Amino acid sequence: MSATSSAGVDSWISTFCSLMGHEYFAEVSEDFIEDDFNLTGLQAQVPMYKEALEMILDVEPSETGSELSEEEEEEEEQDEEEDEGLLGEELDQPAEGAAEGNGAVANRRRGRSSSDTSVIESSAELLYGLIHARYITSRPGIQQMMEKYEMAHFGYCPRVYCHGTKVLPVGRTDTPGQETVKLFCPSCLDIYTPPNSRFQAVDGAFFGTTFPGLFLMTFPDLDIAPAKKRSRDNGVTNEREETESVLSPNEAAAQQQLGAASRSSSLTLPSAPPIPGVNTQSAKDERRAAEAAALAALPPQPASINGVATQNLAPGLGRGKIYEPKIYGFRVSERAKGGPRMRWLRSKPLDINELDEARLYHEKYGGNVDGDPDEEADEEEGDEEDEEEQEHDGDQIMQSADKATSTKRKSKNARSSRGGAAVAAGGG
After folding, report:
1. I need a surface site. Which of 112, 257, 329, 378 has the fewest CB within 10 A?
2. Do residues 207 and 130 both lie within one domain?
3. Residues 116 and 144 placed together within one structural domain of the fold
4. Higher pLDDT, 193 or 233
5. Residues 234, 285: Cα–Cα separation, whole Å
6. 174 and 129 in one domain?
7. Would the pTM count as exceeding 0.70?
């Protein structure tokens, strides 16, 4: 490849990203690739690393490689001439033998160069994918992925209750060759297989496991829910708006016409007889009142948890957003063989404070969120120990003082008793 490409010829990176099935890739800047720090540890994972890196950067092969190839060609020619001399065929048919020898050497050169090129191309794709996984976690790379996310290059979540939330590419492992790329939905926190089969050949390690979480932490003010599905203050959603947002314009218009027809028919047809003892409207009102009371009784909610904004923490999960299978309007029993399973994956506590497990743990066992010991608690414990030591020392001093005074009193009493005995003896 030439070192400098003309204006009409695209670089290897742009050509690679424009291939079918590579729409998820971002174009890594050459400055990022030329920094050796960003390529640490990749040389051991990629065969023919140097040649692959030169192909990615559109750099001509090194002179040492060309010199070695020329020396190898000369050695092959010498070997061919020696073989022909041993056989002695060059004396009888010198022209034919030379032509056959030159053709064999040319075929070997052509075969070796084509095989080397295919290996270098596959190595270049592997190397670029591993570099890409590191690039999209850097500041310029994640900004480039943000632009692709806003233009919905990665697609939408297929789940109904996510209401068309945009998804992000993710890999289930950082080891290449294990699994293909998946799509992560920040609304339901689930991963899906891309709907188009052309993405089934893209390695998931080229995007890594870190990108979606880091993306949401980098843009905490990003509203991942669609405009019509953003959370309301009272927590109650409009079912008609939800249906219209999921359907296309033609389907929405057809549904409106169908609703108008059903309303007109309901004016002419007799209404269904009410069921005695059951008031559906009062039951709905009671349910809504209970939900409003539960929301009002909640403690203050945190603004973010682990760097992720609270409004972006699984908005498609929780009460009212779990699918309930029904047959002709009747719910399927949870104990039935075809009933709902794994509903806990879609559950979400009403109080977001329950998800802040790090804070709850440190409130119970001490320390702070960073894992360091609580300095204030240690200082308080140290002060208490110092006070106890001072009190203990004071008690010992007081006890020694009391002992000294008691011994003095005893000595005085002994002296006085001796003096009295002497006076009594003299008077007698």
Report:
1. 329
2. no
3. no
4. 193
5. 14
6. no
7. no
Between 234 and 127, name the one with better pLDDT: 127
Any idea what DSSP says for residue 276?
T
pLDDT digits (tens, 9 = 90+) for 281-305: 677 777 778 777 777 778 888 888 8
Q: CA Rg, the chain, in Å?
A: 41
Phi/psi of residue 345, each to 5°?
A: -65, -25
Which residue segment(s) compose the domain that 61 sits in?
12-83+105-135
Phi, psi of 8 (to 5 degrees): -85, -15
| Residue 23 predicted with pLDDT over 70 | yes
Is residue 359 very low, low, confident or very high in pLDDT (cuts 50, 70, 90)?
A: confident
The total number of residues shown for the chain amounts to 428
Query: Is the residue at 54 inside a domain?
Result: yes
Please indicate, yes or no, if residue 265 is contained in any of the structural domains.
Answer: no
214 lies in a domain? Answer: yes
In a domain? residue 72:
yes
Among residues 205, 227, 249, the one where a domain terminates is 227
Q: CB 1: neighbour CB atoms within 10 A?
A: 14
CA angle 165–171–174, rounded 5-degree value? 155
Helix (H) or strand (E) holding 304: strand 304-305
Q: Does the pLDDT at position 106 exceed 60?
A: no
Rounded Cα distance, 80 and 208, in Å: 51
Letter string b/e over residues 182-192, b meaning 16 or more CB atoms within 10 A of that residue's CB: bbbbbbbebbe
Nearest 5°: CA angle at 180, between 174 and 141?
A: 60
3-state secondary structure of 60: coil
